[in-house]
């Protein structure tokens, strides 16, 4: 065809690095520690709930309410209303979406207009930038700044901080939204109350909406506390809080997410939802509803899945940190999430000329080398930065530690061989 085929909103966002590095793991038969999903079953009660949804009430094979299966919106309103300190109405304050990814896309499409600016904190989950661009907005980036550590000291994501003056300088009359991710991907940072109060103050001062991605809220380690920014004074009316059943119940393939917020914002998300996906799979929603009802009865107790999964995941995190240190990698201890990012500066100094394109960031070349030569795959952290900043942060890679014990053992075997090669 002579006419231009693709819409201009697709320009520059057609390449997806996930496809490349997942294929790399497969091609090299490497241990895939890149992609963020559990490679073990969801809890038995969640699986049973899904089986019951498939084999029980035949009407669960049909459409349900467009904005969410009523038992699910009801339990989400009850469960999160207590956590947020709000009386949530299932029909007005809850929208069920095709995963948290769908929630984010719906939010950007509903609120971001041509020329609107969206503040994104780096490093950021990589879909925030293309979703802003597809809505016609302009991403504005502000970086978390790492504080140098003493020699031999284990680094932590608590050392990565926002500069209050720099953050304030990013707000203009064109700023429409700020995207917050806590606990964050890829860094694993859990924003403190003081940091959230800074963000909240600036959002209120400049009349800005906060899109708060909180999918890892149940995975917060070492006694740190997750705080939803919507629970702070003056923030409920300008915040969209996004969650994920996939992350909550280790069932990422179910693709059930949600948005919570004031009706003044939610009405616009419902407009996008009803004119795009319209409806999410009923049976998956029913399974999530029953799972939350079960969790609500056990919440905060030793029998709670959220409590048990957190404990198991923290053990996996600590296991991976020790293993990575053993070969000279320098992990940055995460406060939350599925991930640990690791400093590869020492390798960059020792092996600066790895194969690859001249303009290819070092972390991408390192992962290809590591996959081929060490049988391990991670994700380059430079993909979580804007183009001008990628070279500044191309000495980090991201590993996922929410993996089965057998996967972690396979990792250990690969690392043992690596250790043996490093010995004089």
UniProtKB/TrEMBL annotation:
<comment type="similarity">
    <text>Belongs to the class-I pyridoxal-phosphate-dependent aminotransferase family.</text>
</comment>
<dbReference type="InterPro" id="IPR051326">
    <property type="entry name" value="Kynurenine-oxoglutarate_AT"/>
</dbReference>
<feature type="domain" description="Aminotransferase class I/classII large">
    <location>
        <begin position="29"/>
        <end position="407"/>
    </location>
</feature>
<keyword id="KW-0663">Pyridoxal phosphate</keyword>
<keyword id="KW-0808">Transferase</keyword>
<keyword id="KW-0032">Aminotransferase</keyword>
<protein>
    <submittedName>
        <fullName>Kynurenine--oxoglutarate transaminase 1</fullName>
    </submittedName>
</protein>
<dbReference type="InterPro" id="IPR015422">
    <property type="entry name" value="PyrdxlP-dep_Trfase_small"/>
</dbReference>
<comment type="pathway">
    <text>Amino-acid degradation; L-kynurenine degradation; kynurenate from L-kynurenine: step 1/2.</text>
</comment>
<dbReference type="InterPro" id="IPR015424">
    <property type="entry name" value="PyrdxlP-dep_Trfase"/>
</dbReference>
<dbReference type="InterPro" id="IPR015421">
    <property type="entry name" value="PyrdxlP-dep_Trfase_major"/>
</dbReference>
<dbReference type="InterPro" id="IPR004839">
    <property type="entry name" value="Aminotransferase_I/II_large"/>
</dbReference>
<dbReference type="Pfam" id="PF00155">
    <property type="entry name" value="Aminotran_1_2"/>
</dbReference>
């Amino acid at each position: 065809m002579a006419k231009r085929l693709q819409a201009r909103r697709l320009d520059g966002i057609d390449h997806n690095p996930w496809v490349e590095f997942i294929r790399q793991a497969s091609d090299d038969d490497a241990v895939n520690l890149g992609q963020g999903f559990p490679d073990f079953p969801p809890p038995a009660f969640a699986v049973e709930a899904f089986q019951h949804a498939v084999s029980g009430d035949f009407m669960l094979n049909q459409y349900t309410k467009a904005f969410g299966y009523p038992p699910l919106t009801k339990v989400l309103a009850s469960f999160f209303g207590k956590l947020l300190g709000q009386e949530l109405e299932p029909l007005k304050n809850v929208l069920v979406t095709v995963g948290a990814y769908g929630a984010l896309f719906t939010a950007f499409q509903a609120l971001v207009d041509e020329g609107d600016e969206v503040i994104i904190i780096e490093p950021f989950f990589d879909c925030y930038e293309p979703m802003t661009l597809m809505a016609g907005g302009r991403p504005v980036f502000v970086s978390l700044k790492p504080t140098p550590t003493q020699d031999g000291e284990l680094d932590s994501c608590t050392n990565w901080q926002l500069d209050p003056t720099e953050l304030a300088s990013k707000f203009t009359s064109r700023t429409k939204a700020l995207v917050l991710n806590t606990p964050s991907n890829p860094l694993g940072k859990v924003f403190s109350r003081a940091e959230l109060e800074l963000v909240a103050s600036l959002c209120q001062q400049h009349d800005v909406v906060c899109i708060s991605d909180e999918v890892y809220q149940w995975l917060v380690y070492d006694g740190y506390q997750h705080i939803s920014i919507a629970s702070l004074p003056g923030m409920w009316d300008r915040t969209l809080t996004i969650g994920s059943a996939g992350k909550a119940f280790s069932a990422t393939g179910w693709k059930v997410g949600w948005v919570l917020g004031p009706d003044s914002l939610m009405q616009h998300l419902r407009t996008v939802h009803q004119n795009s996906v319209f409806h999410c799979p009923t049976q998956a929603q029913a399974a999530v509803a029953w799972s939350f009802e079960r969790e609500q009865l056990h919440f905060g107790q030793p029998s709670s899945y959220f409590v048990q999964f957190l404990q198991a995941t923290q053990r996996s995190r600590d296991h991976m940190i020790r293993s990575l240190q053993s070969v000279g990698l320098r992990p940055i201890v995460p406060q939350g999430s599925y991930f640990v990012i690791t400093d590869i500066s020492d390798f960059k100094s020792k092996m600066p000329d790895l194969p690859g394109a001249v303009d290819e960031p070092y972390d991408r070349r390192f992962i290809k080398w590591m996959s081929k030569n060490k049988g391990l795959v991670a994700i380059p952290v430079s993909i979580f930065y804007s183009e001008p900043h990628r070279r500044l942060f191309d000495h980090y890679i991201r590993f996922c530690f929410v993996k089965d014990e057998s996967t972690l053992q396979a990792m250990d075997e690969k690392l043992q061989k690596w250790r043996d090669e490093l010995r004089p």
